[in-house]
Amino acid sequence: MRLAVMGAGAVGQAVVDQAASHGHTVVAVADSTSAVVDGSGVDAAAVCARKRDAASEIGTGAPSDALAADYDVLVEATPTTLGDAEPGFGHVERALSADRHVVLANKGPVAERYAGVCELAAASAGSLRFEATVGGAIPVLATIERIGADRVRAVRGVLNGTANFVLSRMAAAGLEYEHVLAEAQEVGVAEADPTFDVDGTDAALKCAILANVIGDREYDLDGVSVDGITGVAPSALELAETDGQTIRLIGEVGPDHVRVGPRLVPANGTLAVSGTTNIVQLETEHAGRLNLSGQGAGGAATASAVLADVDHIADQQ
Amino acid sequence: MRLAVMGAGAVGQAVVDQAASHGHTVVAVADSTSAVVDGSGVDAAAVCARKRDAASEIGTGAPSDALAADYDVLVEATPTTLGDAEPGFGHVERALSADRHVVLANKGPVAERYAGVCELAAASAGSLRFEATVGGAIPVLATIERIGADRVRAVRGVLNGTANFVLSRMAAAGLEYEHVLAEAQEVGVAEADPTFDVDGTDAALKCAILANVIGDREYDLDGVSVDGITGVAPSALELAETDGQTIRLIGEVGPDHVRVGPRLVPANGTLAVSGTTNIVQLETEHAGRLNLSGQGAGGAATASAVLADVDHIADQQ
């Protein structure tokens, strides 16, 4: 398939890097300031090298040139935005309206404007997939699709690796939140502005997406009850430990609730993953409880989910 | 899809029971002595009731009548046999030769005669799927397919719930193997003849299937190094515990080895699932390590995997 990749951050670059090994050709890449378009395939190494060099642009074209390229699949990997989910939503709209396929790594369009995206997809000859928006490399949505969304009764899990790293390190070392967050920023696990990770917003967006997929009505961030980890004190973790428990930031999606917050979980239980690992539990009608865990973030891991979606679309042609 | 179900044990009956909720029609069911064929759909409740009554036959036809029925998908759920994998292999051969689809719950054909089955599938207009043969309800093969078999470098896991129940109960209660096995038989977790579960054969067949799917050459049971749990002493479990470890029956598939045996694993680690839970770890090229766990056996759970395969085939039409 010919791919146009919107967004050249860690995920976009990894998609460009891995695409050829899946038999696909990247014909366009755009970041927020420029684009490179080449119908015979862009030079992946050169694109990534130019992104590393702050002084150079990714290409000589305008970002919108990528949307005008002759592609089969639009890979939307621009940063997630709240509310109107722009510019991601507009990119999705343009691609689907032109009967192209869309694969999302950007959570915004399916978390904040799910009905709108589904309407565009229904009217398009193109397909829409968004595995990479929930759980990174973990095949959460593909597994729900395989089981049948109406046979999945509830989903819960650890959906943000940064928050999980902070909580598990606080518990293991008895350290204060601010201290561990600074550590996490130093090793690159937390971003300079970690707000969306630690206040629960990122996990809440993933829960909204899961609720949209398995539920009967549309959710967005406003419909999710959200509490983050900034208020979790070492003393609370110590108290939990004396009872064989620990605290994790758990997202929950059920028939009557969609919420994110710090929860007590058994210290040696399935949900108490450590470090940046994500885990998702599906409660199913006939298959019992399924647990899926792995890398919930990272460019290469998330790109693997994007490209598995592209492969799926290719298989259906 | 119209299903012919060969085998009316726990899995076959559960397939018959669940098929309608997936929109499929069971037009034939056979056990080893008789069959019922009804082009408008067999009476699921009546079939299951007749199986519970030892004095009655499942139907008035011969078992082979089911193979002659007008079906789209053959569900092969007869007991797994070693060596020539008959009668399962013959059923698969007949269905694929007639350009019908085949979904296996029976491990024999894909563990013992994989090349033969693949040859038949390649020459057929029908598809072949066998998710239910590895890990019951856990979508192991679908996940490998999604990632791409050549991007999965190794697989390891707990692939037999009976053996895991025995080992985890021995470790928790400090009891001898024979005592716990008798308990397991009493609660229905172990069969009257538990040989294949406790000597590692069942896990080895699953490893052969995994090796066949991800590897470059064909494996069968003879190619797998197998050790069971009958020799695991409570003293060994105690010794492991003093070091923060425990013992699990682990199946491993890598580039140079396919083996099953008792292994030391961290007592609170991912592989130390308890009870009858199964877990599979995939080591992947770009997606890191993925862990999938859930119900590895049971009629309803395994039937859910069979029907997800049938749904997949239906979606491809």
UniProtKB/TrEMBL annotation, chains A, B:
<feature type="binding site">
    <location>
        <begin position="7"/>
        <end position="12"/>
    </location>
    <ligand>
        <name>NADP(+)</name>
    </ligand>
</feature>
<keyword id="KW-0560">Oxidoreductase</keyword>
<dbReference type="Pfam" id="PF00208">
    <property type="entry name" value="ELFV_dehydrog"/>
</dbReference>
<feature type="binding site">
    <location>
        <position position="107"/>
    </location>
    <ligand>
        <name>NADPH</name>
    </ligand>
</feature>
<feature type="domain" description="Glutamate/phenylalanine/leucine/valine/L-tryptophan dehydrogenase C-terminal">
    <location>
        <begin position="2"/>
        <end position="58"/>
    </location>
</feature>
<feature type="domain" description="Homoserine dehydrogenase catalytic">
    <location>
        <begin position="139"/>
        <end position="310"/>
    </location>
</feature>
<feature type="active site" description="Proton donor">
    <location>
        <position position="206"/>
    </location>
</feature>
<feature type="binding site">
    <location>
        <position position="191"/>
    </location>
    <ligand>
        <name>L-homoserine</name>
    </ligand>
</feature>
<dbReference type="InterPro" id="IPR022697">
    <property type="entry name" value="HDH_short"/>
</dbReference>
<dbReference type="GO" id="GO:0004412">
    <property type="term" value="F:homoserine dehydrogenase activity"/>
</dbReference>
<dbReference type="Pfam" id="PF00742">
    <property type="entry name" value="Homoserine_dh"/>
</dbReference>
<comment type="similarity">
    <text>Belongs to the homoserine dehydrogenase family.</text>
</comment>
<dbReference type="InterPro" id="IPR036291">
    <property type="entry name" value="NAD(P)-bd_dom_sf"/>
</dbReference>
<dbReference type="InterPro" id="IPR019811">
    <property type="entry name" value="HDH_CS"/>
</dbReference>
<dbReference type="InterPro" id="IPR006096">
    <property type="entry name" value="Glu/Leu/Phe/Val/Trp_DH_C"/>
</dbReference>
<dbReference type="GO" id="GO:0009088">
    <property type="term" value="P:threonine biosynthetic process"/>
</dbReference>
<dbReference type="InterPro" id="IPR001342">
    <property type="entry name" value="HDH_cat"/>
</dbReference>
<protein>
    <recommendedName>
        <fullName>homoserine dehydrogenase</fullName>
        <ecNumber>1.1.1.3</ecNumber>
    </recommendedName>
</protein>
<keyword id="KW-0521">NADP</keyword>
